[in-house]
Amino acid sequence: MFALLALAPMVLAQENITRVTLDATDAPARLFHVRITMPAKPGPMTLLYPQWIPGEHGPTGPVVDMVAFTVSAGGKRIAWARDSVNMFAYHITVPEGATSLEIAFDQISPPETSGFSSGASTTSELAVIAWNQAVLYPPGLPANQLEYQATLRIPDGWKFGTALPIARESGNTVEFKPAPLNTLIDSPVSMGKHYRTIELGREGSIEHYLHIAADSERATEISADQIQHYKNLIAETGALFGSRHYRDYHFLYTLSDHVASFGLEHHESSDDRVRERTLLEDSAERYNADLLPHEFVHSWNGKYRRPAGLATPDYSEPMKGNLLWVYEGLTQYLGEMLTARTGLLTPRDLRAKLAMVAAELDREPGRLWRPLEDTAVAAQLLYDARDDYANLRRGVDYYDEGTLLWLDVDVTIRQLSNGKKSLNDFCKMFYGGAGGAPELKTYTFEDIVAALNAVQPHDWAAFFRARVDAIEPHPPMGGIENGGWKLVYNSTKPDMLRVEEDEKRHYDFRYSIGLIVKDEGVVEDVIVGSAAQKAGIAPDDKVVAVNNRAFSGTLLREAIERTANAAATIELLTKRGEFYIVRKVEYEGGEKYPHLERDESKTDVLSKIMEPLVKK
Ligand SMILES: [Zn+2]
Q: Which residues face 169 on adjacent strands?
């Protein structure tokens, strides 16, 4: 009865709706079959495949994997020609009398686990659907004015989760309600054989869901403690922002060693992919503790409020990344602080992470030529940049340096206001509003400065210009130091570094001899100016032996430790291509690891920031 009434407006609007059917029953074989019916008028027409993917900050649409493409009208094939400059555009001529097109193509999901949503997205047990890989659209209108209605066929016996509102389900077919193209593309679907949905808490009419898809039943077994931490995340973000800009929120948590590992934010959901046993292994869980908090924060910072240069009307217009130190940097800061506020990490673990972040950024000779802002402007290049000489190139530093930068802002506000104001006040003001449904409000650098000034007057423009635009040999340490802590190095290995080494399968000697070595001896990177580089070692060399004994990370670590009180030569037999060379690393000082140490001369503001906002 209710369904029949709801149908009426759909029927009226039908001729303007593009209908997409995605057959995902061959997902385990890494093939998606797409059928589209699109309204059309006779004459020349262009069809666009989404190129610039929101949240990926680059032209990452996998058009190369779009195959078996045909266009017909009234049952007759129409010739198409790809634009010779824009590889994402197809030109056709719609025949006289035609009112719609039938479009078909297959989308290949690659086996490679690198990349974001264009990387591996299916296994024989699960799949994640990114709708930008299943649509074409005409140029001219912004994506929020193009109406799409999607239908999805899922493999037999699989379950699914998505933020996209459902009209009806029958068998393995899911028919979704019509939605603007930007909402469709912003609403991925996760599905799988081993699937579990957990309710994380309701606020008013807004419900929060955690959908877990995994390569095994065992890997979906989330503990009561873990569930409680994510329930705390819902409560803590409510207290931080004061309103929510979504109808419901869905975490699509995918656990597999065979899909790309990343997090991708959406307004009403997030596509969060980690290794299969993340919920079962302490190291993996702690390593990924900030993933869901980070992606969730993006619903406010990134989706609701977005830098004007990233809020493009469609998927053809290039994005401008210069404010990613706000979009990603502030999100990274809030995501990290939320790990402590929710119990996902202990304050001690989070301090260890901050020490590692500060130390790593301080070991970057690339700081001497490239300002932080350029890492944001060049984001579309840097996501794909290799690890070799990363310290000289700099990577997407606006994430981790954003943590230090916004900690500096938070501590500065607290100090200038004598503890009366904090960045939490900025969050409530800048990200507040009526809420209850997705909305987009763009901002500029000047808007950020004005909002901060409304919370606590200060020369915020100069504050950011000095830390973001300028060449700055050291990362911003004001937040840590004025927050009552200092960065020190000693010979005690922090447990969070062990966690990172386990997850990255490498040994991190960057603070002593200046080397990062993969488990099997291949040099991931050499810090420019370090003892290892002076000995002639380069990235991609393979360390074969340490002081005449076959390489192991532990052996090299012990050799470094023996230099604690006396200079020594560590002889590394290395292989470069086909040639073996002995490299003599002259070094003194032993193994060194970064830590935050309490500075008793100052108030401990940092610990205050890590406390939950919701009193239990
Ligand atoms: Zn992010």
A: 174
